[in-house]
Amino acid sequence: MEENNKPVVHLISKPENMLKTIYTACRTCYSALSPYEIYNSTDDENKMLNLIEKVVASGHYSTIEHIQVTFAISNVSRACTHQLVRHRHMSFSQKSQRYVKEKGQFDYIIPPTIARDEELKKKFENFMGEISKVYCEFTEAGIPAEDARAVLPNAAASSIVASLNLREMIHLANLRLCTRAQYEIRTMIKMMCDELVKVEPWLKPYLVPKCERLGYCDEDKSCGRKPKLAQ
Ligand SMILES: Cc1cc2nc3c(=O)[nH]c(=O)nc-3n(C[C@H](O)[C@H](O)[C@H](O)COP(=O)(O)OP(=O)(O)OC[C@H]3O[C@@H](n4cnc5c(N)ncnc54)[C@H](O)[C@@H]3O)c2cc1C
After folding, report:
1. Which of 224, 177, 223, 219 is nearest to 197 (CA)?
2. Tens digit of pLDDT for each residue in 222-231?
3. Ligand 1 pocket test: which of 81, 164, 175 has the largest number of ligand atoms within 8 Å of its C-beta?
């Protein structure tokens, strides 16, 4: 993907005490101590990680739902955000095509398969220009933006604030880092994972394509990263 065609992703919110919160949730299930006593009982990262790994590996996922993170995302196509908003345990606030009227050429994302061919790229850009002209003609004729947007393409750039809990974050990464996922959402999710791993490195082994966690590929068409289960 060309640099200026890349998503822009920032982690804008996460709990300060992520590990300790999950540890407290995990140990509360098995301890006579109160949650607050558990919370204040240790700062030993290895001890906390050890328990968290065991609990998560056993599928006790409610313990990681206590952690909420928020990303500010821009320079992505509506095609990309449309895929993201299919995830039902996430919360979104997206730039509105009703309330934000495009003035002049709207921003758009060119898929790299098109951008790498000069002739096709030119054709794509010209077509975006044509759409923009029709859109502006409509809005200047008094058509409300909410109706004029009907001519805008999947490529139109968008921005979105996305929040999710850690359970959903891991699920999202497992599904969308798979090479079967479309390139743009895969790129965006990788950037979200990288942002999170920068501040919480212990999450790295969880924020991987699903085959890494399963040990095999469950897709119809495999990229070969992991073997498929014998049929
Ligand atoms: C490679 C790829 C190709 C895709 N292709 C298509 C396509 O061609 N057409 C298309 O329409 N979509 C497609 N999708 C989207 C896909 O079908 C899902 O809608 C999307 O990935 C959200 O996944 P999810 O439902 O697991 O996750 P979320 O909505 O994030 O939910 C997480 C988990 O919660 C549970 N859950 C959530 N809601 C319910 C519920 N109502 N009932 C029971 N359990 C629930 C499930 O266990 C689910 O896995 C594709 C996705 C991928 C990754």
Report:
1. 177
2. 999 999 987 6
3. 175
